[in-house]
């Protein structure tokens, strides 16, 4: 479970962007946070995963599976993060893009794990492909599998569906739901688009 306890966020000495936010996200479920541009959605995700800028002041606790992770470095939190842009490295093949997410102890089965991930994403045989040759939906699925290969205990998504047209958005949203349910990890999506409510559990959290 991913839990936020009384999270308050401000930038420098300005008035708080977010005040007293508390929410529990169950394993295998996806919650949606919506708010206007500038309301602090992306900043909230950076606070949760530990990548917030130094001028961001946050109080409250982030708990993951019962442990407080708020004071940990980003790499120690085991929280995956996806953006609107898939951010696939253009100088690497699709297979190499996915392989960089694997921990060192997977060096002996790296090829098999990448192959299995691509097959799950409907991209079997794409190991040697150039990222520039992928469609928007294919790139989004490849980026998701790269994130999941790092074996996160929670998944954050920052406008991850926004670049896709309605048909691709629906397909990708369903794929995300399947993957988090099978892995039993909590997921949090921030979005400005009301259409993304179709993917969420337990209503929309508005900030």
Can you tell me about this structure?
28% of the residues lie in helices and 25% in strands. The chain has 207 residues and is of the alpha/beta class. The chain has one domain (2-206): Rossmann fold (3-Layer(aba) Sandwich). The strands form 2 sheets. The chain has a 5-stranded parallel beta sheet with strand order 6-7-8-3-9, with helices on both faces. A hairpin with a 6-residue loop joins strand 1 (2-11) and strand 2 (18-25). The chain starts with a strand and ends with a strand. The model has no long low-confidence stretch (mean pLDDT 93).
For this entry, give a set of tags.
207 residues, alpha/beta, Rossmann fold, five-stranded parallel beta sheet, four-stranded antiparallel beta sheet, 5 helices, 9 strands, 28% helix
**Overall residue-averaged pLDDT value:** 93
Return the domain count: 1
Query: Can you summarize the main beta sheet?
Result: 5 strands, parallel
Query: What's the name of the CATH homologous superfamily?
Result: P-loop containing nucleotide triphosphate hydrolases
Could you tell me the strand content as a percent range? 25-35%
What's the arrangement of strands in the largest beta sheet? 6-7-8-3-9
CATH C-level class: Alpha Beta
């Amino acid at each position: 479970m991913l839990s936020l306890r009384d999270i308050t966020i401000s930038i420098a000495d300005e008035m708080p962007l977010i005040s007293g936010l508390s929410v529990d996200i169950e394993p295998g479920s996806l919650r949606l946070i919506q708010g206007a541009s500038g309301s602090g959605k992306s900043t909230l995700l950076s606070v949760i995963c530990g990548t917030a800028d130094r001028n961001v002041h946050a109080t409250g606790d982030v708990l993951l599976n019962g442990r407080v992770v708020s004071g940990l470095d980003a790499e120690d939190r085991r929280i995956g993060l996806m953006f609107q842009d898939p951010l696939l490295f253009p100088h690497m093949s699709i297979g190499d893009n996915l392989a960089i997410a694997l921990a060192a102890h997977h060096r002996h089965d790296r090829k098999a794990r990448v192959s299995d991930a691509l097959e799950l994403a409907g991209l079997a045989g794409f190991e040697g492909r150039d990222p520039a040759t992928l469609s928007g939906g294919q790139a989004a699925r490849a980026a998701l599998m790269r994130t999941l290969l790092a074996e996160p205990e929670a998944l954050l998504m920052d406008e991850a569906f926004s670049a896709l047209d309605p048909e691709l958005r629906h397909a990708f949203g369903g794929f995300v739901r399947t993957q988090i349910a099978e892995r039993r990890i909590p997921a949090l999506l921030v979005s400005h688009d009301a259409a993304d409510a179709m993917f969420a559990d337990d209503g929309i959290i508005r900030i």
